[in-house]
Amino acid sequence: MSEAWLWSTWVKASRLRDADVAIIAACLPFVNPKLYQEISRDKVVLLACPEREHPALYGKMASMIRSSRPRLITVVSIDGSPHCALLHASVNEAEYILNEDIPRRHYVVLDGEELREISPNAVRVARYLSIVEELVRKNPEALEELAKHSLEYRSSLARAGKGDAPRT
């Protein structure tokens, strides 16, 4: 495993060329070290945190892909983290900017424990809150699932008198 910060990595670094690159939320090694080790195995790891780093990930990602041609890009973030969604969106946007298919896989870590694959289309839809609103209206059971994972949502329910107080 090779590890560096995404924003501090030269887009033409030789270790990126034809490599399996994993762009991983910087907090994952702290949140779940075992899962981080599993995901990192045999990959060039680029740690990233949009809260910590400059938001120009879109251009950096497109330039890195065009310059170094990684074999595969795997993006792993913490599910429910609003800023982590930018990591996924940056790879989708790079595909759009370059106008070519990028071999990639998207994953989220649910509740700090479970790795779940998500589609590039899920990332695209997440950017359009009007579409998300329609999906929630048509599928209210999604809010039941949200209540299982989101402290923020459970808190809002408790304040509205519609649910239990948040679990700690």
What's the gist of this structure?
By secondary structure, the protein is α/β, with parallel strands linked by helices. The protein has helices at residues 28-31, 33-40, 57-68, 85-98, 120-126, 129-138, 141-149, 151-159; strands at residues 2-5, 20-25, 44-48, 72-78, 104-110, 114-118. A 6-stranded mixed sheet has the order 1-3-2-4-5-6, with helices on both faces.
What would you say this structure looks like, in words?
The protein is α/β, with parallel strands linked by helices and 168 residues long. The protein has two domains: 2-127, Rossmann fold, CATH 3.40.50; 129-168, no CATH class. The protein contains eight helices and six strands. It has helices at 28-31, 33-40, 57-68, 85-98, 120-126, 129-138, 141-149, 151-159, and strands at residues 2-5, 20-25, 44-48, 72-78, 104-110, 114-118. A six-stranded mixed β-sheet has the order 1-3-2-4-5-6, sandwiched between helices. Helix 4 crosses helix 5. The radius of gyration is 17 Å and the shape is globular.
Work out the helix count: 8
Specify the CATH class of the largest domain: Alpha Beta
Beta strand %: 15-25%
Please state the overall shape, judged from the principal axes of the Cα atoms.
Answer: globular
Largest sheet, described in full? 6 strands, mixed
- SSE succession: EEHHEHEHEEHHHH
The structural class is alpha/beta
Number of domains: 2
Helical content stands at 40-55%
What are the segments in which pLDDT stays under 50 over at least 5 consecutive residues?
Answer: none
How would you classify the quaternary structure?
Answer: single chain
CATH architecture type of the largest domain: 3-Layer(aba) Sandwich
Question: How far apart, in Å, are the first and last alpha carbons?
Answer: 35 Å
Counting DSSP E segments of at least 2 residues, the number of strands comes to 6
